[in-house]
Amino acid sequence: MPYSKVKEEITMTKKSYSQGLLHIFFILASLTCLLPVILVIGVSFSDENTIVANGFKFIPEKVSFEAYNFLWNQSSQIATAYGVSIFVTVVGTLLSLLLIALYAYPLSRKELKHRNKFALFIFLTMIFNGGLVPWYLVYVNFLHLKDSVWALILPLLLQPFFVIIMRTFFQTTIPDSIVESATIDGASEVKIFYKIILPLSLPVLATIGLFNTLNYWNDWFLSLLYITKSNGISLQYLMYKTLLNIQYLTTNENAASQLSKMGEVINLPSRSLQMAMAVVGIGPIVLAYPFFQKYFVKGLTIGAVKG
């Protein structure tokens, strides 16, 4: 056998061996991300006394639906909170993407006067902020958004870091010749933006859209600040309140004795309920990942590495 063929076969063998090791590494890495989710699901179906005695187990030693029965008894309130979170997440993500794109695209155009000053303005907000009290006063006293669903949307609309990512994507990915050709053909700036720029920017839009979806869905702090009505809070804040109430009842002896005098029996699944709430809260956000996965890696690398 000629030396060149032997060398080629050795190279192919080494390549397949290295690819096999790489596949094994990523399989193990994927399992390390998946195992905590499996543990959460397993604990949510475990008996509370068994958890206290033996700790967390992937496979429940004693299956119990007590945590889910507790959530089922509050199904109407959970459904309302679900509706609020879904509305805030969908509307907030779409509006945020539109505003970020409208701000980032002009910053990417060299012909825009004072574009560096506008970029500096948005960048400074990443470093300095007015603090919680002025923020609260603006939304409550000036905008009058107390107990309004828009109080859960507006504060997260324009994220400076996402503006910088999208501006970098526009600068490094979309050629100036495309915009110049469209301008020569008589297209307006609005038409260029909606017909050319946005369709070419699906990777970065999907990437930032995923981040925005996570931010809106996982937010509970805005509900704590601005919402006092029980039918206006988000799902995450409802879970936060429920867990605090359960922890208070299970750890406070005075509260336990008062409930015992009233004939109430305290048998709250504290640990399993935490996991059941995590399962209930993670469902919709897991379903959102397949819609962003196609463009996520490409948009993240193009928008953040170049430039």
Give a quick precis of the structure:
The chain is mainly alpha-helical and 307 residues long.
Verbal overview:
This protein is an all-alpha fold. The chain has one domain (67-304): MetI-like (MetI-like fold). The protein contains 14 helices and no strands. It has helices at 3-44, 48-54, 66-73, 75-108, 115-127, 132-142, 160-173, 176-184, 189-200, 202-218, 221-226, 235-251, 253-261, 270-304. Helix 3 (66-73) crosses helix 14 (270-304). The relative contact order is 0.12.
Tally of separate helices: 14
Sheet having the most strands:
none
Share in helix: over 70%
User: CATH class, anyone?
Assistant: Mainly Alpha
Distance between the first and last residues' Cα: 50 Å
Mean pLDDT, all residues: 80
Number of domains: 1
The run of helices and strands is: HHHHHHHHHHHHHH
Subcellular location: Cell membrane
Family: Belongs to the binding-protein-dependent transport system permease family.
InterPro entries: MetI-like, MetI-like_sf
Pfam families: BPD_transp_1 (PF00528)
Index terms:
307 residues, mainly alpha, 76% helix, flat, disordered C terminus
Task: Describe the secondary structure blueprint for this structure.
Blueprint: H1 3-44, H2 48-54, H3 66-73, H4 75-108, H5 115-127, H6 132-142, H7 160-173, H8 176-184, H9 189-200, H10 202-218, H11 221-226, H12 235-251, H13 253-261, H14 270-304
Helix pairs in contact: 1-14, 3-14, 4-7, 4-10, 5-7, 7-14, 10-14, 12-14
